Amino acid sequence: MKKFFVLSLLGLSSIANAAIQWDTQQGKLKLYGDVEFNTDAASSKQQLSSLKQTADKKNQPADKDRWDINGRILIGLDGYREINHSNYAGFTVQPLADLSGDMNLDDAAFYFGQKKEWNIKIGRYEAYDMFPLGQDTFIEYSGNTANDLYEDGFGYIYMMKEGRGRSKNGGSIQLNKPFLTNFNFELNGLINNGEKMFNKSTYHGYNIDKKKNVAYVRPVLSWKNDSVSTAIAAETNVVKNAYGYYDNDEKFRDQSKRTGYGATFSWNSEGDWNASNKGLKINTSFAYMNAKDEKDMTIGTNLVWEQIGFGYIFANNDIKKFNLENRIKDGHINNKGKYKIHTVNASYLINNVLDMDNFNIYLGTYYSLLDRSKSHGDNTDDRYGARVRFKYFY
Predict the structure, then answer these.
(1) Which of these, 9, 80, 107, 121, could form a disulfide with 90 (CB 3.0-4.6 Å)?
(2) Residue 336 vs residues 113, 246, 321: alpha-carbon distances, Å
């Protein structure tokens, strides 16, 4: 039976090599799954960045867990129909069951279009990845990419994800248009409750009030051949006064002005992006956020050689304004100024466990250093940890 080649074009490629597929009167259906369980050991009670570093969506940066077992099981169902070798339509839905006892959802999307011409996608999904992390195991900033991204009092590693999608507070719509040779233009729109991007609705010591939903526009221009992939992108909220705070004079201060820019470049030595565990793959990415009272910049690079992966991420937070009367008790960033976060990570893949090509084990480790400016004592704080990940496809 033919594979769903259009799903790969839309970023909805099959999770597993083995899947149950069957024909119906209205097209094709495919059932598949993905098991991912982690055993973690961390050096401290808190992480340094606001982005979540566990598959458990309930985990927050201030959690007290030093040892942790987390993970989830995904069940996916895809449907696809094509007419006259041109027009097509389909859907994907991926419920998740995690170890906290909750049911969540990864993707839930509907798409349609014409082959090699255009397609439209709507629902819950992730748009183009402008900050690929290679074979990352522990520095996998999981959780929703369009909300709960910022935890007040912790560093922000901006990676062009605010308008990428997969939000639990709103939906997305996307236009995808290939043109010329190897070029592709993607325009993603995200409408949701922008206040929820800030966990507990606080931002630099201010309590955030919502006035309207935000509307992010995220254009991406990409080019790809067998060996090289590159893209440039921007994302911005186009709704003024969507959320903000009231100052001491009861005047509303808009905090929803946020515009980001990014670029990414990838190369593989094999001339084949699907050649797993072969040759050398390198990713380099840059992201910059120009926000109200804050500037964030992130640079990252990583490589994967055969089964070994290494990565480095540098993040700089320049905070222009902070409410000292509402500091976060357990936070690492409680004043205006410049903060730098250095993160290195490494991983090793043990594939085909028990001679099964759908069962892998990943060993991962990381080290992060938060470097404060001289105005905050010029001191540092570090964290490190290790993870064993069990990955099983079916």
Answers:
(1) 80
(2) 48, 19, 5
- Residue 13's closest CA among 276, 237, 252, 217? 276
∠178-167-35 over CA atoms, to 5°? 90
Share of the chain above pLDDT 90, in %: 48
Q: Which residues share a beta bridge with 146?
A: none
pLDDT of residue 59: 52
Pairing of strands 150-151, 198-199: parallel
How many Å apart are CA 221 and CA 180, to the nearest integer?
A: 12
The encoded tokens of residue 323 equal 């409410």
Burial class (CB in 10 A: 0-12, 13-18, 19+), 7: middle
Burial class for 21, CB neighbours closer than 10 Å (0-12, 13-18, 19+)? middle
| pLDDT for residue 142 | 32
Tokens of 104: 């969540």
Least Cα distance to 149 among 131, 137, 164 occurs for 164
Q: Would you place residue 324 in the very low, low, confident or very high pLDDT band (cuts 50, 70, 90)? A: confident
What amino acid is encoded at 226 in this protein? D
Q: When comparing pLDDT for 72 and 196, which is higher?
A: 72
Helix, strand, coil shares, percent, the chain, to 5: 5, 55, 40
Q: What strand order describes the sheet that includes 243-246?
A: 209-210, 243-246, 252-254
Rounded to an integer, what distance in angstroms lies between the CA atom of residue 367 and that of residue 49?
A: 12
pTM of the model: 0.87
**What's the CA gap between 244 and 332, in Å, rounded?**
23
Average pLDDT for 158-175: 89
Query: For residues 171 and 163, is the Cβ–Cβ distance under 8 A?
Result: no
